[in-house]
Amino acid sequence: MQAAYRPIRIGLLGAGSVGSQVARLLIENREELAKRVGAELELVGIAVRNKNAKRDVDLPRELITEDAESVILGSDIVIELAGGIEPAKTWIKMALNAGADVITANKALIAAHGSELTALAQQFGAQLYYEAAVGGAIPIIRPLRASLAGDKINRVMGIVNGTTNYILDQMETTGASFEDALNEAQALGYAEADPTADVEGFDAASKAAILAGLAFHSEMPVEKVYREGITSITALQIETARQAGYTVKLLAICERAGENGEGLVARVHPTLIPLDHPLAAVRGAYNAVFVEAESAGRLMFYGAGAGGKETASAVLGDLVSAAKRHLAGGPGLGDSTHADLEALPVQAIFTRFQITLEVVDQPGVLASVAKQFADNDVSVETVAQNAGTDSDLALLTVMTHSASEAALERLVAELAKNSSVKKVSSVIRVEGV
Amino acid sequence: MQAAYRPIRIGLLGAGSVGSQVARLLIENREELAKRVGAELELVGIAVRNKNAKRDVDLPRELITEDAESVILGSDIVIELAGGIEPAKTWIKMALNAGADVITANKALIAAHGSELTALAQQFGAQLYYEAAVGGAIPIIRPLRASLAGDKINRVMGIVNGTTNYILDQMETTGASFEDALNEAQALGYAEADPTADVEGFDAASKAAILAGLAFHSEMPVEKVYREGITSITALQIETARQAGYTVKLLAICERAGENGEGLVARVHPTLIPLDHPLAAVRGAYNAVFVEAESAGRLMFYGAGAGGKETASAVLGDLVSAAKRHLAGGPGLGDSTHADLEALPVQAIFTRFQITLEVVDQPGVLASVAKQFADNDVSVETVAQNAGTDSDLALLTVMTHSASEAALERLVAELAKNSSVKKVSSVIRVEGV
Asked: What is d(CA B11, CA B80) in angstroms, rounded to the nearest whole number?
């Protein structure tokens, strides 16, 4: 097909690791993209904070500017890759107000203000695309928005942070401590100098909020996502898990909860999953999202969860969609939040737990511990007793049946008062059994 | 959101295992679907061949008719689940001609006439959806059409036939013969009474043609797809493969080929893949499609590849998209075939092979066989020698480096003439190394 239309003007905000790759691909693949879309995609400007900063990719100097507003107002489609809440939010609103479609990879912004921005897009007949915000190159937003739009999703479980998956995988493979694995991840560029957003689960929590909103047609405020990071996970916990047939992953889990499923819980925490679960095979910095739907059954989407080039692929996919829509005309299609499931606290769900306890190694202790489990409505599936760190201590590893978070909290408080229990060494939730 | 529009009229053609589930879900989830779409989806008719046939699902009698034409002409969106080429093709053309969007799960029809039907849809501003045609419930069409539309796909490898994956998995797990595993699959309803379409690879070849067309923006006539089934695979081959660290899967593979990648090869055949490849973990009747793209890297889409309810999920996803588009207005978006890569024969590619030979067990035989490999430009990576079926025979298992199909064909012909070679027992391609 000949490109019969005037070029579609593309404005890029940000030229970091993703932005510079998007610019490079737009320039290198200009001809091919024009054929796919049916019109030229012309990169008209690249707004950056500092024109003179050094960049990995050589970008045309004449396109680079510090004037974001002129880039936005001179574009048919705006790609926001600056990150952070402001000025990204102001820029996106400016673009949508001007009727431009917007593509972003900004998970923090979408998690915090996605519905406000989607509503604004609807109002102006524009569309907001954010495939790159979750799972990097993995197509997950579009499958949830469209492919599964006729199904009832019961649960989404994702490995959505590559840094933490890499660290846990290294700890499992090499027996390294959390600190050593983190140092290695930083040396390899998988973790940032300040790793808080990754290792404390903030990044995964933003993605959980986005996934929950889309999968359940409801709003999930990011501050309602329960969050626990991986900083206290030890190599011993991972080794113990492995021997019992499990692996430890930082999962983002979104599911219906409450009586009759009228609520919704989203949570991020280290989780034991059986070694034969599809998510257990996700190694290194890879990501995967596992979906359980009423009709479709079990689905999994797997791929690179980060990386400039990989994330750029998702951005360009959105760009081709936006550009085709721009040519075809017609308004954008919004996301539906009609279901309005209430965001419930993590106490609303039931899970299995693995609890490890250091106890005094003497007769009667197991019985006294078992009684505390029973008294607190936490039913025990298996108990394994091993030698403890000290000769007069034993290590109990208890796998529970499904129990409420509330019951578990009470139990742990009670166990701490038991004079035979030296320490509650670890409490990890178990999923996918 | 209140449903403010008049109901969108949905016509269903076919009430088999998928059709009856689609009808059930449309009726049961009427209210929820109306909220998602913003208008009622009203099932106005179900066209069947025989009104009085017994069905698994209780469908409203007043909707069932043998008059397909009246259903088509009275619908805004037509769902074709009759299967086969005719009358399905005529019906779809009639619907598109009338401006209705069409949803189908008919892989044979899309593989054979997809571009004709897509062009017709374009002409009338309608859209043809066929997410359910490949991979059942797995969203793969939409990711290829849209999410990866800005990337360059180098290769697609899929387990796209659940019946053969179940059979091969059973053979591997239980050591059963092909015949026994097939009988079991038939008893469980995973295989049809006449299993030819599955076990000879015809079904997978249709899906390979569809995937190749979408992934490479080209036309791939189904008759140009190289096809080999699994009927001659033995439990011994699978056991031998496993010992060497491989598993046997029936793969549909589509990739660029020829000098400078100006061609395209699609092929379906039993394939050895390493046990640590993501596709190796796809067990039972599950399907998965593995994609290698220039920027996105390695992606995998996993889920139920068949089943009435599962396939119905994909159909309903398409229906929600079509209905939203119907409300929003605007023309449909076609698929691009601009790349026009030429469909090349399987001889255009290079692969690794595992070749097993029964040879006379005497000195000098290995040397004479090795010379034949070298003379035919097939470079050997490893050779393993085991006891043969007879005391005076030995079994050679040769893993080659990448070789052309043409060189391999010559080699096999030459080996058959070697008087020390009793039999070329098996030749299997190896991928994913």
From this structure: 8
Q: How confident is the model at residue A334 (pLDDT cuts 50, 70, 90)?
A: low
B119 touches chain A (CB under 8 A): no
In whole angstroms, what is the distance from residue B257 CA to residue B349 CA? 6
Q: Tell if the CB–CB gap between B36 and A336 is shorter than 8 Å.
A: yes
The beta-carbon neighbor of A328 closest among B302, B309, B330 is B330
If pLDDT is split at 50, 70 and 90, which confidence band does B177 have?
A: very high
Nearest residue in chain B measured CA to CA from A332: B328
Residue B351 phi/psi, 5-degree rounding, is -140, 165
Non-local (6+) Cβ contacts of A238 within 8 A are A168, A171, A172, A247, A248
Please count the helices (runs of H) and the strands (runs of E) in chain A. Answer: 14, 18
Whole-number Å distance between alpha carbons of B326 and A393 = 69
Whether A302 has its CB under 8 Å from any CB of chain B: the answer is: yes
Q: Range(s) for CATH 3.30.70.260 in chain A? A: 349-430
Q: What's the pLDDT tens digit per position in A385-425?
A: 887 777 789 989 999 999 999 899 999 999 999 999 999 98
Residue A154 has pLDDT above 50, yes or no: yes
- Fold type of domain B141-305: Dihydrodipicolinate Reductase; domain 2 (3.30.360)
Query: From the list A295, A301, A307, which residue is nearest B313 (CB)?
Result: A295
What is the DSSP code string of B38-101? TS-EEEEEEE-S-TT---SS---GGGEES-HHHHHHT-SEEEE-S-SSTTHHHHHHHHHHTT-E
Q: CB of B281 within 8 Å of any CB in chain A?
A: yes
Mean pLDDT, chain B, integer: 93
What's the pLDDT at A2? Answer: 46
Q: Which CATH class is domain B349-430?
A: alpha beta
Predicted local distance difference test score (pLDDT) of residue B4: 58
Structure tokens at B8: 């969108």
A274 in contact with B, Cβ within 8 Å: no
ω into A363 cis (within 30 of 0): no
Judge whether residue B302 has pLDDT over 60: yes
Q: Give the C-alpha separation, A1 to A40, whole Å.
A: 12
Between positions 137 and 156 of A, the ones with CB within 8 A of B are: 137-139, 142-143, 146-152
Residue A4's pLDDT band (boundaries 50, 70, 90)? low
Kind and range of the H or E run holding A414: helix A405-417
CATH 3.40.50.720 assigned to domain A8-137+308-328? The reply is yes
- Between helix A202-216 and helix A107-123 the angle, nearest 10°, is 30
Please check the confidence at residue B1 and state whether its pLDDT lies above 60.
Answer: no
- Return the residue of B nearest to A131 by Cα: B147
ipTM topping 0.95 = no
pLDDT above 90 coverage of chain B, percent? 83
Which residues of chain B form CATH 3.30.360.10?
A: 141-305
Q: Cβ of B137 and A293 within 8 Å? A: yes
To the question of domain B8-135+308-328 being in CATH 3.30.230.10, the answer is: no
Give per-residue pLDDT as tens, B330-356: 767 666 677 789 999 998 999 999 999
Bridge partners (DSSP) of residue A248 are A272
Residues in chain A: 433
Question: Among residues B93, B107, B152, B207, which one is catalytic?
Answer: B207
Which residues are bridge partners to A350 per DSSP?
Answer: A404
Reported pTM: 0.92
Q: How many C-beta neighbours within 10 Å does residue B84 have?
A: 11
CB-side neighbour CA atoms (13 Å) of B382: 6
Per-residue pLDDT at A392 = 86
Q: What is the DSSP letter of B377?
A: T
Q: Which residue has the tokens 């009085």?
A: B52
Q: What stretch of H or E contains A395?
A: strand A393-400
